[in-house]
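Homework help board

Subject: predicted structure for assignment chain

Our instructor gave us this sequence and asked us to write out the predicted structure in token form, then describe one feature. I got the tokens but I'm not sure how to describe them. Can anyone check?
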Amino acid sequence: MPSIDVSNLRKSYGANEALKGVSFSVEPGEVVGFLGPNGAGKTTTMKILSGFIAPTNGSAQVDGNDVVADSLAVRECIGYLPENAPVYTEMLVRDYLEFICQVRGLPEQQRPARMAAVVEQVGLEEVLGRSIDELSKGFRQRVGLAQALIHDPPILILDEPTSGLDPNQIVGIRSLIRDISENKTILLSTHILQEVSALCSRVLIVSDGQIVGFGTPAEIEAQAAGSARVEVVLVGEGDVRGKLAALPGVVRVDDGAGEGAGTLAFSLVIESGADVRGDIFALAVASGWTLLELRREGQSLEDAFRVLTTGVA
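My token output:
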């Protein structure tokens, strides 16, 4: 039985149809990355799955419980972390977690052991006695994760868990999610594609309220295949961009990352199956350019996301 099973899910806000027949399933133990542009329907889907709002049509089951008919049972078996951690900033971390234990209905005799386990798991030992409003964004996210884990649910729904964090905090939260995923099913919404590659077994992409891609990262990349890129770094003069764009098989020439003054860098989008590296080398020789780098790259997850959500390579 899937941990999450969604069938023809629809949600309308007046005349605006946020979800237009979304269907997917998440198997036990999977970490599924949930991707899409802003306004695509990710947060709406997560709010329906967590029981915060009801769908207009269609059905969704979480751990075998219907999100409408068995809403309380659904809430008991999930841990939900919205984009902005749901914390009471005036409370001490310890007091807040004790409060969540009460709200979740944990028996009083089990609370100390469960709190100690979660505090150690998410790394909150050093801030237990501090007020939440004194904490950094990274520690607040850890507190948010702790409240989602305190009742030991089998399923976690995480909406942009690293939003607004600095690079060091992102690494810390990402490592924490990786550890948690060893015995949880996780649906993870994020805009950071490196997170998907690092954490997720499958990827779900929505655009304009509809699923446009679902599969492993490799399957998503293959689904959107149709072009590749050649990265070029050189030293040269004249209409370099124009000459590169005129080569057979080149669809578009974008700016790349140069290596300093005097170097030019371009990223060439090329037709599927084309290999223009030999032509670029010959052109560089004929034009008197110094070729510093020439590298062909296949479709990346970022390329696939762009193709599937915009139709543009």
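Reply (TA_rk): Your tokens look well-formed. For the description, you could write something like this. Residues 40 and 208 are 5 Å apart (CA to CA). That's the kind of observation they're looking for.
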